[in-house]
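input
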Amino acid sequence: MIKTILVPTDFTIESEELLSCVSELKSVGLEKVILLHVVDIFQAQGLAPMFEENAKKRIEDYRQLMDEMGVDASTLVVEGDVKKTISRIADEENVDCIVMGATTSGLIKSRRTGRTTEYISRRSGKIILIEKYNIITENEEKISRKACSARFSKVMLPVDFSENSKIILDEIQDFKDIIGEIVFVHVIEGAKNEKELENKENESMRLLSEMGKELEDQIKINYVVSEGEASESIDRLAEEMDITLIVITTHGMGSFKDILLGSTADNLLRRTKKPLLLIPVKDR
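output
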C-alpha cells in the first residue's frame, strides 16, 4: 500500500501539477507527502544559500496546499546532485512511491527534468508514478499540459507470465477501489509460424483469464493478446484503447540482473504518451 510518497519539485508548472496525484492516492491509503527540492550544487555554486532560502519559502506554499487537502505533508530543501539526492532521500525517508514527470515526446534529454526522471526510473527500488505531459505552443510560448487527468479510470497491465510480472496483481489490489477498468495484455514475440502463433494465443488468453478472475467480481476486466515487439505493441494498444495508466514491473522474463530497468519498461518509458506506474521487483 502506498502510504508515503515523495514529490520532488523544481517549481515548474509540471511539478506543481504533480500534486494533483495526491487526491487520487488519498483514496487508497495515502497518509503522508514529502515535498522535496534539491538545490543543484553544480549550478548554484556560491549562490546555493540564497537558492536554498528562496526554495524554502516557495515549497511552503505547496505544503499549505497539502494541508488544505487534508494530507500530512513535510518539506525538505537540500543541496546536492539532483538525481542522486532524490534517490537517496527516497531511501532514507522509506517512502513507498516517488511521483515524477516526463513529456509525451519522450524524456527530454536537454532538460534536467527528463534526465532526472530517467535516472530515478533506472536506479530506484521504489514504486514510481510517472506523469506525462504534452508540450504545446500557445501564444508562441511552449507550455505543458497533463496527458491524462483520470489516471486510474482505465488501467493496462502488461504481463509476460514471469513471476516478476505477477507482482502487479499484488500491487493493483490496493487500487481496486478507484480503478474503473483493467486491461490485461500479453504480447507474443517470435512465433515461428501461424500454428505456433495460434497455440500461443490460446494459451496466453487462458493464462490471462486465470490472472484476472479474482478481480472480475470487483472491476471491469478485459483481456488482449497481441503479437509483435513488446513495447511497441503495448504503446499502440494503449493509444487505441484510450488507456489512462500503464502499470508495469521493472523486470520481465528476458531481463538481465545487471540492467535495473527491464528493456520493455525502459523502451515504454521513452515511447509512450501515457502515464506509467513502475513496480520494482522484490529482489532489487
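quick obs: Residues 154-279 form a domain with the Rossmann fold fold (CATH 3.40.50.620).
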